[in-house]
Amino acid sequence: MKTIKFPAGLQRAWQRNYGGLSKPVYILFFARTVNRMGDFVKLFLTLYLTQILGMPTETAGMFVMLSAGSSMAGGILGGSLTDLFGRRRMILGLQLMSTVSVGICGFLEPTIAIAWVLICAAGAMGAVRPVVNSIVADITASPLRQRAFSLLYLGTNMGVAIGPLIAGFLFRNYLHWIFWGDALTTLVAFSLVLLWVPETKPSSAEISQSLEGDFHLEQAEGGSMFRALLRRPVLLLFAPLGIISNFIYSQHAFTIPLHLSSLWGERGAELFGTIMSLNAVVVLIATTGVLFIFGRFKPLNNMVYASLFFMIGFGILFFVESFPLFLVSTVLWTIGEIILVTNLSVFIANHTPITHRGRFNGLLSLIFGLGFTIGPYVSGFAIGSIGLDGMWRITGLVAGVNALMFFLLFRYDQQRTRRIAAAAAAAS
């Protein structure tokens, strides 16, 4: 049997960007890819509720909102429990819960009960995110974390690039397999974790060792989460800027389709599909290159660049009325998306005490999710008052101000780090 050989250039690029990581990180990458490839129910939840269950759009919207809320609440709960019970036990239990609940739906006749079961399943999968982020932070040294989280992000987009095509075929022809396929891919991810991902929760010895010496950002904390946050003011200042970043990013899913429809009527939906396909392609092609270029900079510094790409990518839509320029805009804000996502989790991990990693990831995921959640609501009111052109002008301006605030926070973080180091040197 012949061994598959990849091109030498591809092997070098992979080693340069993703080499040197521990085995569990690569296992989590494969598990994430498979899981997101089979994320069928989430993709077609709205269509299932309206076309199969016959819900009015208002009722379907309420259930979709409840599903999103369940996912966010699950993140908070999962983060807290993983610090208490451990990473491996939590991720296995949550994935098994999701597998069973979604799989059962495939055997049921379409009723409102399925919608409630899916809301519970959304909570279980939402709880997985802070657990995975905690595992990566546990086993990856700070200099390698950008590689690790970038690899998971790449796995997400590899799965998303393939999953909708499979889900669309199943929804039209084999409806029950929407649930069974989703459950089976989650079961595969469960098996990968069961076989090759060990428990990574810091031991008592590691916690004691982290307390030795002077204060540092990943030092264990014995108090509450809020006390730990107060000792990390940069993280507190970072949170509102993260909310604004996600608010800006949310414009791609709300204001862009409205703009396309205003210019090209019924063709707007088709053109928006083209834009989202381009977004996925750019992520798959450009992530390794973006990591190579920006991986040398600190995560907080990179947030400045993400905001600048958002400022240009979304801001130029004020001047755009031809579709090719929409595509140029998409490439620019997608690069901003890549920088944002691959640095967000790294920054949180680098500023989180080892005893609170799950809780910090759960809470901050909820906070940052608020930006994406409130984005369409606030934008709808703004567009009604100032129009689409005005909305793009405001979006570009807000992104520019956010870039400046990230830069000032970066400078403050540098100065504070130097002060702490100087105080430690003077004490010794």
Task: Tell me about this structure.
This protein folds into 2 domains: 21-200, MFS general substrate transporter like domains (Growth Hormone, Chain: A), CATH 1.20.1250.20; 225-427, Growth Hormone, Chain: A. 82% of the residues lie in helices and 0% in strands. The protein has helices spanning 8-18, 23-37, 40-43, 45-52, 57-85, 87-105, 112-139, 145-173, 176-196, 204-210, 225-230, 233-249, 251-264, 267-294, 299-315, 323-350, 357-427. The longest helix has 71 residues, at 357-427. It is globular, with a radius of gyration of 22 Å. The protein starts with 7 loop residues before the first helix and ends with a helix. 43% of the residues are buried.
Residue runs with pLDDT of under 50 for 5 or more positions: none
Radius of gyration: 22 Å
What value does the average pLDDT take? 89
The CATH top-level class label of the largest domain = Mainly Alpha
Q: How many DSSP helices?
A: 17
CATH architecture of the largest domain: Up-down Bundle
Order of helices and strands: HHHHHHHHHHHHHHHHH
Major β-sheet annotation? none
Overall shape: it is: globular
Name the structural class.
mainly alpha
Number of domain modules: 2
Tell me the β content. under 5%
CATH homologous superfamily of the largest domain - what is it? MFS general substrate transporter like domains
Helix content percent band: over 70%
